[in-house]
Each structure stands twice: as C-alpha cells, then as structure tokens.
Design a protein that fits this description.
217 residues; 5-stranded antiparallel beta sheet; alpha+beta; 4 helices; 4-stranded antiparallel beta sheet
C-alpha cells in the first residue's frame, strides 16, 4: 500500500513538470529606471615625465650693421672771430659798418638749401644793456638809450657778411663794429636738417642749439 502511494506521488510530480515545460515564456517587461551613478574612483598615480628632447643647433649670428652717421657729421662750426678788415659804407639812404668772412664751404648748394646761424657776443655795452657773457643769434637789436644798434648777416657764395647799423637822434657820421666783438657761424647742410622735423633755431638759446647739434660752446 505504501509503495502504491509513493508511485502515485511520483506520477503527479512528473505530470506537473511536463505541463509546466509546455508553456511559452512571457513577454519581456519594460526597462526599469536607471540606477544612480556610482561614486568616482580615486585618481590613479601620475605617469613619469618623458625625456626632454635634444636642443637644436644655434643659428649663425648675423653680420653687424654699419655705424650710422653722427647727427652733426656734416655740420661746420667756426671758432670765435673778430671784425677784421671792416669798412664803412654810406650811400645817402643808409650807412653801416661791415666786414666779410671767407667761408669756402658756402657753395651754391649750401647757399640755396643750407642753414646759416651766426652768433655774437659783446663786451662794449653796459651790463644793464647787454651782459658781456650773453650770446645771441643774428639779426639782433640792442637799445642803448637814444640809439638803436642793429646787427645783421648776409650770405654770399664763398663768404658771409656781418653788418652793423645805428639808428637814432645822435648817430655819428661814421662808426665801426667794436674790435672786441666776437662772432661765430654754424653751417647746417640740408641733409642734416631734413632727417627730422625742421627745427626753429631762432626760438632756442645758444646753449640749446649747441647741445642739439652736439657742438662745444
């Protein structure tokens, strides 16, 4: 009897397995929500630095450029000189004392294009009228009470002329430039003045002009 019951149980179990295996799988369900991102892992150790590349060969040095000309290379400045060989002129309209200074550098090209500066200094006037250490560019005018003392300069090919004229109530028939008067000329060719914006030397003192041109006082 016991054997019969066990046999029946086994038969039922086999039947259940058989029936179950005959059913098809069901449809796949919908995708579930994405899970939260995990925590970032720790950074790994840095890799070793690569070997430095070989330095390239230095290039050949370029040739030195030529030295430029000095700013006053073509400027000519005279020493101080006096009124040698002066003479007096009177033509009925005007009268004046004058002398000529030979300057061979004043050629046609300079006469037409260059700049001439003539400076003067005097010690024959009272200090209140004209200090003995004062240097001024021609033309200039010195007021001496009732008389005006006027100095001008003119250029000719190969020379410059310096003229002295008096105007006033008490002008003598003849007069001369003081023998102690001193003059100095500076010749500036066009190539020198044309390098930069033209300079108005008349607005500069004697010392400023000498410094500008790199000349001794």
């Amino acid at each position: 009897m016991k054997i019969t019951i066990n046999f029946i149980k086994c038969a039922i179990l086999v039947f259940a397995i058989t029936v179950t295996s005959c059913y098809k799988d069901g449809d796949i369900g919908p995708t579930g929500p994405q899970g939260e991102q995990g925590i970032q892992g720790e950074q790994g150790p840095a890799g070793e630095d690569g070997t430095n590349g070989t330095n390239g060969t230095d290039g050949t040095n370029g040739e030195d450029g030529e030295d430029g000309e000095d700013g006053n290379a073509n400027v000519i400045a005279s020493d101080w000189f006096g009124p040698d060989a002066q003479y007096f002129e009177s033509n009925g309209y005007t009268k004046y004392a004058e002398f000529e200074k030979i300057v061979t550098e004043v050629d046609t090209d300079f006469y037409n294009k260059g700049t001439l500066l003539v400076y003067a200094k005097f010690d024959n006037y009272v200090e209140e009228v004209w200090p003995s250490d004062h240097i001024s560019l021609l033309p200039l005018q010195i007021s001496g009470g009732t008389t005006e003392h006027i100095y001008t300069t003119y250029t000719a090919i190969g020379a410059i002329k310096i003229r002295y004229r008096r105007e006033g109530e008490f002008v003598p028939e003849t007069y001369t430039i003081s023998a102690s008067a001193l003059f100095r000329y500076v010749l500036i060719p066009q190539a020198t003045t044309g390098k930069k914006q033209k300079v108005d030397f008349s607005k500069m003192t004697y010392e400023e002009v000498m410094d500008h041109l790199g000349l001794e006082y």
